[in-house]
Design a protein that fits this description.
Layout lengths: L1 H35 L12 E6 L4 E2 L7 H6 L6 E2 H13 L3 E7 L7 H15 L4 E9 L1 H7 L4 E10 L12 H7 L2 E7 L16 H26 L3 H9 L6 H6 L5 E2 L2 H12 L8 E3 L1 H7 L10 E8 L14 H13 L3 E10 L1 E3 H15 L4 E10 L1 H6 L4 E4 L4 E3 L3 E7 L1 H6 L24 H26 L3 H7 L4 E3 H7 L4 E2 L2 H12 L5 E5 L6 H4 L9 H6 L7 H10 L5 E4 L8
Parallel strand pairs: 1-4, 1-9, 2-3, 4-5, 5-6, 6-8, 10-11, 10-19, 11-13, 13-14, 13-15, 14-18
Antiparallel strand pairs: 7-16, 12-20, 15-17, 16-20
Length: 588
């Protein structure tokens, strides 16, 4: 027995020593990284500088977290946050040492609304009498929309040019489900609530086709009008060029005055050198986004007043919440703390979410309603703030949306996977023993019982009525009006303004300015929330040894259906009631 105790004690001691050693190594790495990435060593902005704005990297709604371990080990690729991009453009506009911007936006990964925010900032930059020159090897349609703001666009003569209008594809799985024996049991409300339509039919419904067409044509109206203004063309000419297929090649783009020159990056450099009147021996000074941002401190230590910007991104699920998942845990705690913080004078909630859990949406709505009693709460809609994303926005004092934002989708549905056909094909049979009729409730192994379906419909009806009531209260609308604009229909930000779902058109910066005005602030510090703690699981993602049941079932799903199955797993961690965007919206 003593031997066993000593043996276990030695193992425990060894494990403890290893843990302490590993923690010490992390601390040393972290400290070293802090020194290496310290802004004290940042090169100062020189005279006749040009902001090097390369947007051919991932662009996120929130600035990426400052993780010393990832920086020193180079575990993460370069990522730009939308706020730091806008900040750099605005600071460059006011800096007399910066005379222009060199822009790359070949294949920008930002969403349409984010891209438009950057474009608006570039417009304001030009108003200061400064230039923007753009170069691209490949100009995707979104990249061209952004680049069209430039004074001059140089495109690689053997590159790619894209200007083709907008389209959206929706895949339908009914025959596929019948073939493989895996299907989704669906209960829904709302004429346009078509998130589950692909599991019920083989073709698009008239209602779904109507709303997608309405959405795309309204988005395109904004895009082509803004391109037309900056390229000195009429919107009708742009439509004609696309219909007549005169936008397919770099030569087409040059001939139709969509770009200014065909050439290479060296040609763009010569253009900038000439604009700056640099001598042959003078070197072009390029200032990075980080260099420009660090030239002027963002935080003023003399000011106590703050505006809190809470970034809510991703699907809405029940649980704790992360940087890419909205859940009641961290977000309710954050909002409650901000309500009690005397230094925080207003809260701006930045939402980029297609929706999700009805329960979590209600919990967040309740919390926002409480915060409103103590200080202004405003919402800034990102690329998407629909369904559950709109639910949590509805109670804010003011809602801002970009014309290219996707919002609305006031409707409810439940989708539950049913693998009974797959089991039967595999020769697996299910038997049930119950103390009461329908005691089993829902099971993935069996079709929905009539009683369970009736109960689910009742719950959906209650959730739908509550959703509409929240919108009516928050937006000061008659419930009949809400019903007419609800039913799961999706709207652009511009359409949402016309029907009263939002108050103003604008991006994050305009929302923060409105919050400051409501709070009576002229000077303030801007603080970002929630604050997430880094731990071993976040530093070493993917090393979980758990074997959840849903991973087991993934083994049996056909490869074609796994992406949709995985999305449904995200939507249903606890409950099946969903306030979600009515279709997988991919706009090309």
């Amino acid at each position: 027995m003593n031997f066993l105790k000593n043996f276990l004690a030695s193992i425990l001691g060894t494990l403890t020593a290893i843990g302490l050693f590993f923690a010490l190594i992390l601390m040393i790495i972290s400290a070293t990284a802090s020194v290496l990435v310290s802004p004290t060593g940042v090169k100062a902005v020189q005279s006749k500088s040009v902001l090097d704005l390369n947007l051919n990297v991932p662009v996120t709604d929130r600035n990426p977290s400052f993780d010393e371990l990832e920086i020193i080990l180079k575990l993460n690729e370069e990522v730009l946050g939308l706020p730091e991009v806008l900040n750099a453009i605005n600071k460059a506009a006011q800096n007399p040492k910066i005379e222009g911007i060199k822009l790359r936006s070949d294949y920008i990964t930002a969403g349409w609304a984010q891209t438009r925010s950057i474009r608006n900032a570039l417009q304001n930059f030009k108003k200061q009498g400064k230039f923007i020159y753009s170069y691209a090897d490949i100009l995707t349609q979104k990249g061209y929309y952004l680049a069209s703001v430039a004074d001059s666009i140089v495109l690689n003569p053997v590159g790619v040019f894209e200007l083709k209008g907008l389209a959206s594809e929706v895949l339908y799985y009914k025959d596929f489900q019948d073939e493989y024996g895996v299907k989704m049991e669906v209960v829904r409300l709302g004429k346009y609530k078509s998130a589950v339509e692909p599991y019920l039919d083989n073709e698009m419904s008239a209602a779904n086709r109507f709303q997608i067409q309405s959405l795309l044509f309204d988005l395109w109206e904004t895009l082509k009008n803004e391109i037309a203004v900056d390229r000195d063309l009429s919107p009708e000419v742009i439509d004609t060029l696309i219909k007549e297929q005169k936008t397919a090649t770099p030569e087409n783009a040059l001939a139709e005055k969509l770009v200014d020159a065909l050439g290479y990056e060296s040609d763009l450099k010569n253009l900038i050198d000439s604009r700056l009147e640099l001598d042959e021996e003078e070197e072009l000074n390029l200032a990075s986004v980080a260099m420009v941002n660090q030239s002027i401190p963002d935080y003023n230590k003399e000011l106590k007043d703050r505006i809190a910007v809470v970034f809510a991104k991703g699907p809405i699920l029940y649980g704790e919440g992360t940087q890419s998942i909205i859940a009641q845990g961290v977000f309710v705690e954050t909002l409650e703390e901000l309500a009690e913080d005397d230094w925080v004078k207003a809260v701006v909630l930045r939402i980029d979410s297609p929706g999700g859990s009805a329960l979590t949406s209600e919990l967040l709505w309740q919390t926002i309603n409480k915060v409103k009693q103590q200080k202004p709460v405003l919402v800034s809609m990102g690329n998407v703030a629909a369904s559950g994303g709109y639910y949590i926005a509805a109670g804010a004092d003011q809602i801002f949306a970009d014309p290219l934002s996707i919002t609305g989708s006031i409707g409810v549905f439940a989708s539950l996977p049913n693998a009974s056909g797959l089991l039967e094909n595999m020769g697996i049979h299910v038997e049930t023993v119950e103390t009461h009729p329908d005691a089993l409730g829902y099971s993935i192994f069996q079709p929905l019982s009539k009683a369970f379906e009736i109960q689910t419909k009742k719950s959906i009806q209650i959730t739908y009525e509550t959703f509409k009531r929240r919108v009516a209260q928050g937006r000061n609308l008659n419930e009949t009006v809400v019903e007419n604009i609800a039913q799961g229909r999706v709207w652009t930000g511009k359409q949402a303004l016309e029907i009263g779902l939002v108050d103003s058109l604008g991006g994050l910066e305009e929302t923060i300015a409105a919050a400051a005005k409501l709070a009576g602030l002229e000077e303030y510090n801007r603080m970002e929330y929630p604050k997430f703690e880094e731990n071993l699981s976040t530093l070493l993602p993917g090393m979980s040894l758990s074997m959840e049941g849903n991973r087991f079932w993934n083994l049996f799903f056909p490869d074609q259906l796994k992406p949709q199955w995985n999305k449904l797993k995200e939507r249903n961690p606890v409950a099946s009631m969903q306030l979600l965007l009515p279709y997988e919206l991919n706009i090309h």
